[in-house]
Amino acid sequence: MSGRRALPVPDGLEGERLDAAISRLFGLSRTRAAELISAGDVLVDGAGAAKSDRVQAGAWLEVTLPPPPVAPAPVAEPVPGMTILYEDDDIVVVDKPAGVAAHPTVGWTGPTVLGGLLGAGHRVATSGAAERQGIVHRLDANTTGVMVVAKSEVAYARLKRAFKERTVDKRYHALVQGHPDPLRGTIDAPIDRHPSGDGRFAVVAGGKPSVTHYDTIEAFRAASLLDIDLETGRTHQIRVHMAAVRHPCVGDLLYGADPTLAARLGVTRQWLHAVSLSFDHPITGERVTFTSDYPADLAESLERVRAES
């Protein structure tokens, strides 16, 4: 959405601050809107203005939007700690370690699943954007566990459809603060980017439909271990939904987790692990299931919370 835009200020924005108006009109964060204003990329009735100026309905806005940032190409290099759970001509299933993104994104300079596979000599599908080749679903960089990548073009198309049609069973375990009430339930709340524009997501009216089913496996004094079945697959969905019901994942400081509890249990990231993935194999049609054990850091913190209960 780069280039020059010119339009009158809508009646509904009468009296708003200029940075707030630009933010709402173009879907930018307030910070980004303020940067454009200070750089002289926003004119009001042909003249420069300050971010705190109040806009009048009908005033003529001219805004020069920068080109969107482009994600870097994947760096093909082996990723230590990433193991292959299964591979054939069409799919490769990995056990993703913490600190590894699914694919390159703007601002991420660390290792990626895609780069790790390419670096180890694995072929991946070339469908989709160059930086997301073969990627049919994602795990957050600091969420560990099972992830499938398409190697053939037909597998890519069929797996993308399977995720969209929700025929894939995605199961996670999460250690969350406190005790959800009820112990078993469903969180059905729409998710979209947080209005602050700081990279978080949130439950917001008009967001994308998002459904999370949870069941308590074990309750401890300070936390609960949950089995989570994702019906949809929004970015940060489990983290956002658990935080929304006041039970954030232990260690998830981005979504309001207690740093004291995290430190006591030795948790340095969100306690969230993709334990299993079941889907119809894109070529044979056979139902396949892949599972992953807890990595050492999550297993150790689970023993600590169990010992103190």
From TrEMBL:
The keyword RNA-binding applies. The active site is at residue 140. GO terms for biological process: enzyme-directed rRNA pseudouridine synthesis. It comes from the Bacteria. Its EC number is 5.4.99.-. GO terms for molecular function: RNA binding; rRNA pseudouridine synthase activity. Pfam families: PseudoU_synth_2, S4. PROSITE patterns: PSI_RLU, S4. Residues 16-74 form the RNA-binding S4 domain. It catalyses: a uridine in RNA = a pseudouridine in RNA. Keywords: Isomerase, RNA-binding. Responsible for synthesis of pseudouridine from uracil. Belongs to the pseudouridine synthase RluA family. This is Pseudouridine synthase. It comes from Thermostaphylospora chromogena.
